[in-house]
Every structure is written in C-alpha cells, then in structure tokens.
Amino acid sequence: MISIQNLSKVFRTEEVETAALNQIALQINEGDFISVMGPSGCGKSTLLNIIGLLDGITSGSYKLLGQEINGLKENEKAKLRKQQIGFIFQNFNLIDELSVYDNIELPLIYNNVGSAERKKRVEAIAERLSLSHRLKHYPQQLSGGQQQRVAVARALITNPKIILADEPTGNLDSRNGNEVMELLTDLHANGATIMMVTHSDYDASFSQRTIHMKDGVILSEKQNARNVDVLVDAKEN
Ligand code: ADP
Ligand code: MG
To answer: Where is the signal peptide (predicted)?
Structure first.
C-alpha cells in the first residue's frame, strides 16, 4: 500500500537547513497497524505528513497505492489525500466555529458528496462513536475525549484506506486515551491500515509493529507481544 525508498526531507529557510528525514525505507501493507516512536524532533510528524501528502519529499521515492507521488500534480495529490487518507492530530484540529455535525460533515463536502448522503453518513458515524447527542454542540462545549472522538469521526467519514494519527492520545487523560486506543484497535480489526505516532509504550503495544526513529533515521523495528499472543492463540484454536 505504501512503499518508501531512500526518502530524505530537508527543510530549508534562509538561514538554516534541517535534515528532518535521512534515507528512510519503509513498507506498509494493507491492514497493518504501525506505531512510530522516538524523541521530539526526530522526524515522526514529518514522515506522517509526507505519507499523508501534506508535505513533499526532497529526494527518494514514495509510492502510495502503486503511484509514485513525485510524478503527481498538486490537484492529483489533493484528490488522493481527500479520498484515501484520514488524519487524527494531537490537538484535535476541529474548527471551533462549526458544530460537531458540520465538523464531521466537512470532508464529505470537499469530496462533493450529495446532502442526503452526507446526512446519512454523519448520523451513522456519530452513532458509532457515541456522538449522536452532541451533534449540535460546538467543540469548546465538549470534553477532550469527546473532541478527539469528533476528530476520529471526521477522519473516518470518507472511509479512507489509511488512517494517520499523530500522538492521538497526547492531550487526553488515560481514560479518554484508552477510549481512543480502543477505537483505533476496533478500526484496525475492521480492516483499516493505521500509522500512529506515540510517546506511550502502552499505546504502541496495541499496534502490530513499532518503528523507533532517531535523528531522521529508522533505528529499529519490532513486532509487538500483544499481537504475537494473538497469532499464537489463533494457531492453538
Ligand atoms: P517530531 O514529530 O519527531 O517531533 P518533526 O517531524 O516535527 O519531529 O521535526 C523534525 C525536524 O524537522 C525538527 O528538527 C524540526 O524542527 C524540523 N521541522 C519540522 N517541520 C519544519 C518546517 N516546516 N520548517 C523547518 N523545519 C521543520
Ligand atoms: Mg511531532
């Protein structure tokens, strides 16, 4: 689904050059659940933003769904992003001036979905994420956990192939954080491909494999025990 080879990213301003990613190689298959860990500034968000087509690469190759991204025009990238990718951010990134309903509906408007279909889909996803009674509220009237559920609903409303989550539990207490992790685990069980940045070993343990980054490179990758157990159980039964 995603194939990255020799990928480097340099941020240039007039005074400084920052090598944010250095010769990254990474394969992500359909149905994977990958977590990315590493110290602040090591390039985790940059990698996620590149995969999510929010940012371009400096050199190397990035193929998404078989297409080399470097060859695409901006409008083709925007279309891929709108249709295939759902983003979840640490600070939720909801629009304060819009109701919960309007926030969740927004990606459907961007994708030119008709109004009857939009209503049906917003109501269905709100039901699934226990937000049906909050649709007329505004983000500031909700708890952090509820706001992140709205952000998850907005990310899922277009049925994206890939969900990218950048420290999705970073601003949540442990109860709300666990709720978001259960949600992601549930989505993964239903076939979603997920890549999640986290500082929490516990959150990472929900994923199948964890990549450790440092200074713009991938240091190591490991399979997670929770999922190894699941594989063993499946064999025994
Ligand atoms: P992480 O998410 O792991 O904390 P980032 O990917 O945000 O790290 O940043 C990696 C490096 O790239 C850092 O040194 C950061 O300062 C730099 N960087 C990130 N975004 C930009 C940008 N838009 N312009 C210049 N430098 C940036
Ligand atoms: Mg970051």
So the answer is: none
